């Protein structure tokens, strides 16, 4: 649906642009939904993009479109604009989107734009002062807050006049100090007789978050209570903003990305931070821990030097035995980490989880042990008992990996560390070391 | 915030339950938000959970709570109930949540409950007929659809009487065939004079999806157009349901989970499918491909048997060289896969991406090559040029892994395959094989 709207617009628009039919293109853009314009801008080449963006007549439309663009497109477009012009556009974006955009830009650039705003910069600067990833940083200060003794009739009148607030389907009720005391929905308002006051039917003690609530927690609150927006208060309960569900959707996407990257042993900054040195620096920590673990592997193998020289075939099988362990370990840790994050995994049913993982892994380990033994016997490598050694080796490697992959994130979660830290590099390295030890001991004993 | 509400309720409730003060507990529950009750039920032991759930007096409250529970808790609770009783509760859940619950239950159980519903089952059965993961399967049929020639006054009257529909902040406008022709928001309705008709100010050609639209696409539409609900129509444009933003949030969480698990080489079914055999079966495919790749590694190494026997130290360094490659490969593929999924990664800027990945990886490869050479020289393993061999070995292994990890998902995406298929097992196995070849060739040449 959206695909076809967006691509229809893109086809017509590019046709006009190629022909130089600028007024046609401009009129088409005026009739289009900002989201569809954003769709097109995200997909066309840079020169066409700048041409089309220049055709958007009002700073309002430009602001609307800009706040719907993908990060890379937005950064490119703003980079090509004069700070003054960029400032005019930013001014017309919803305040939370404007703040987010400025946060994403290089600091110098963002300060240029801010200083071009003059007085209008104040509201934005306040938002920018809240620490990143908090409710304060993602909230919008544009909301409907009305006194509790207001009548339904006057309240409806207010909605009519100031209804372009964010989250206009909720009206927040405040006392004379601007402290949050209640909430009514637009629908509730319609249901009530005109002379009632908001106090008479408002929901008291509404769900709320404070400016320093972590954005992940904000997302959880909105999704737990199935609300469309959550009011943000200061520590003293003074109402200062609102986080709407569309921001929550952005937060959730962002947090999922963080989890995914953490599992691979890197961080979110990655995709936004340019520069090789910075890129390498971000990925380094997990790799170093893995590297140090590798030294342990070297030390272990060197103590079994004689066996290895005698039966060099052991070395042939080392990669497959360790590799399979690593894969199984990663599967286990990923299932556990994501299960913990989404709550699908019921930690009270720990024995059941462990039994399931143990049973599943044992089945897999057995399957691959038999297959590897048959292969080793088939190709006739090594001494008589060699197939038995590799079978036991891969069985132990998989079982060790499954145990580490399952228990490590559970342990981290229990002691209060983010379980996603039990990530790929950590799991594969520790299973590598233990797998080497197990296989070497088995080889020495059997052969 | 939500934490404290939920845990406060939990503490008071358990105190009452322990003392056998059932009527106190019941009154407390009546005053509580269903989401807080769900929070408690998700966290207490099974016996307490059943006791508390039994205290919820009305099927409405039970339905509300049930639809907010985590999967495992919901399944446990429903398993302990008589099908008749379960049916009464399901009847009082929002239809989309009821359908989801029935989908999650074992088929036999879900049919028992459905047949206990009698006539009320029809609506649910219609929903259950739509294929999983489509708009039809996640929509709610409860919506406000009004004719276009209705006056504002009558429309507001309708909202007053039937306002408990899902997505009650939008009123959909239909023609006499129930075809979707427009949408007005509750706020727009308030702004208009009472005698205007909906046709006069409705937004025509509203954003919509069809019953067979993939749920991921539904989520994209809702988040792209920043709307709170999207109407669902049949192929002929007849309006049949609505997907609200809270369902979209669930879909997004689910899709992120799928991506995460796919990257580790397993699938979502995992966390829900019990049984060892089934668990092993789900994880098997990627492991088998990895296993087969392992055979290639064995074959390769066996052709370098002489060198290995001569310089057994090569075997000591094999795990660290392959392991570091695997880790870097995973980092690269994860960054690319997630970047493609979220649109952060700008595919038109391919040369820039490749240059960034190449530079970053080369820096990392160089760092670890130097470190490994120093280590090898320090411990004095092997022949004179051995440190050079391991340094070149790990450098090549990391660079190969980075290339595979970066290019494979980009290639998959280009030819229309889900890039997440370029997952952990695939990347590590292919880099293992190529890493072995590279290191062996280097060792043979240098030593």
What does the radius of gyration of chain A come to?
A: 30 Å
**Largest interface summary:** A-B, 126 and 126 residues
Mean pLDDT of chain A: 85
Q: Structural class of the helices, strands and pairings of chain A? A: alpha/beta
Coarse morphology of chain A = elongated
Oligomer: homodimer
> How much of the sequence of chain A is in beta strands?
5-15%
Helices and strands of chain A, in order, run as HHHHHHHHHHHEHEEHHEEHEEHHHHHHHH
Quick structural overview:
The structure is a homodimer of 447-residue chains. Chain A has helices spanning 2-19, 22-31, 34-41, 46-55, 59-68, 71-79, 83-91, 95-104, 107-117, 121-129, 135-138, 152-162, 186-191, 198-201, 215-224, 245-263, 269-272, 276-303, 305-310, 313-342, 350-379, 386-414, 424-446; strands at 145-147, 170-174, 180-185, 203-204, 209-210, 229-233, 239-244.
């Amino acid at each position: 649906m959206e695909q076809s709207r967006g691509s229809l617009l893109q086809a017509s628009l590019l046709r006009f642009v190629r022909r130089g039919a600028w007024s046609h293109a401009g009129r088409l853009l005026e009739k289009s939904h900002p989201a569809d314009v954003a769709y097109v801008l995200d997909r066309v080449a840079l020169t066409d993009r700048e041409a089309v963006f220049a055709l958007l007549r009002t700073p309002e439309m430009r602001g609307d479109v800009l706040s719907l663009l993908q990060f890379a497109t937005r950064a490119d477009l703003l980079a090509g604009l004069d700070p003054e012009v960029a400032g005019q556009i930013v001014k017309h974006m919803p305040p939370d989107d404007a703040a987010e955009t400025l946060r994403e830009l290089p600091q110098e650039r963002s300060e240029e734009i801010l200083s071009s705003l003059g007085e209008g910069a104040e509201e934005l600067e306040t938002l920018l002062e809240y620490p990143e990833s908090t409710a304060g940083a993602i909230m919008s200060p544009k909301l409907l807050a009305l006194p509790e003794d207001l009548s339904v009739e006057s309240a409806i009148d207010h909605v009519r006049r100031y209804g372009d607030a964010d989250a206009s389907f909720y009206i927040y009720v405040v006392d004379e100090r601007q402290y949050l005391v209640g909430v009514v929905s637009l629908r509730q308002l319609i249901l009530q007789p005109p002379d009632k006051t908001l106090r008479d039917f408002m929901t008291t003690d509404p769900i709320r978050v404070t400016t320093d609530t972590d954005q992940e927690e904000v997302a959880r609150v909105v999704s737990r209570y199935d609300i469309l927006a959550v009011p943000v208060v200061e520590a003293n309960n003074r109402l200062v903003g609102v986080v709407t569900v569309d921001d929550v959707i952005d937060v959730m996407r962002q947090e999922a990305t963080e989890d995914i990257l953490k599992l691979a042993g890197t961080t979110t900054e990655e995709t936004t931070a340019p520069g090789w040195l910075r890129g390498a620096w971000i990925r380094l920590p997990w790799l170093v821990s893995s590297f140090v673990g590798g030294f342990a592997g070297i030390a272990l193998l060197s103590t079994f030097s004689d066996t290895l020289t005698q039966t060099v075939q052991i070395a042939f099988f080392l990669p497959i035995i360790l590799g399979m362990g690593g894969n199984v370990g990663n599967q286990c840790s990923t299932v556990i980490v994501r299960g913990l994050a989404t709550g699908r995994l019921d930690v009270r049913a720990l024995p059941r989880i462990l039994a399931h993982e143990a049973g599943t892994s044992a089945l897999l380990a057995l399957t691959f042990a038999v297959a590897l033994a048959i292969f080793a016997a088939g190709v006739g490598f090594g001494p008589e008992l060699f197939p038995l050694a590799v079978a036991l080796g891969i069985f132990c490697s998989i079982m060790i990996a499954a145990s580490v992959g399952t228990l490590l994130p559970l342990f981290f979660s229990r002691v209060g560390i983010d379980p996603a830290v039990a990530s790929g590099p950590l799991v594969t390295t520790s299973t590598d070391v233990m797998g080497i030890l197990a296989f070497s001991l088995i080889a020495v004993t059997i052969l």
